[in-house]
Structure to design on (156 residues):
């Protein structure tokens, strides 16, 4: 099949679809950049905060590494390298996973919990400033509805 005939099979975006896609990307970049900058000012990355907050909500403040990686959309090896850096800072520790001989558990340390407790007000204020306060209640409801549609498997 030639490039020309395969290109003809592409369903290009309409102008309205392209504007919506680009607007969505701009919003994601702007909000993420703002909240990441605010977290960086207190010595945390977005990934650090995600791991700490997730672990704080889990029973015994513990999660299998593979579950955390899935939640974050990361590979196990990428999260493992990140967890090594967090462990060196005393934010978490690792232990063997009794349910998975090749896996490990991520366990929030007291220092990690204290760090999260100190960072949470800054993070919430950042989310408010860069996102919540810029939208009306009906905008927030629409975003929730859109997220539910997009999070599921694509219709094919």
């Amino acid at each position: 099949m030639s490039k020309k005939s395969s290109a003809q099979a592409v369903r290009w975006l309409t102008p309205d679809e392209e504007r919506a896609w680009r607007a969505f990307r701009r919003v994601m970049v702007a909000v993420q950049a703002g909240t990441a900058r605010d977290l960086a000012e207190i010595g945390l990355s977005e990934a650090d905060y995600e791991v700490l907050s997730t672990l704080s909500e889990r029973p015994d403040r513990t999660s299998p590494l593979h579950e955390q990686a899935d939640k974050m959309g990361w590979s196990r090896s990428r999260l493992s390298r990140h967890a090594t850096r967090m462990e060196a800072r005393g934010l978490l520790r690792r232990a063997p996973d009794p349910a998975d001989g090749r896996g490990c558990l991520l366990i929030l340390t007291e220092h990690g919990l204290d760090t999260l407790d100190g960072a949470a007000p800054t993070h919430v204020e950042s989310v408010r400033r860069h996102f919540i306060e810029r939208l009306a209640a009906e905008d927030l409801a629409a975003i929730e509805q859109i997220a539910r549609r997009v999070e599921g498997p694509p219709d094919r």
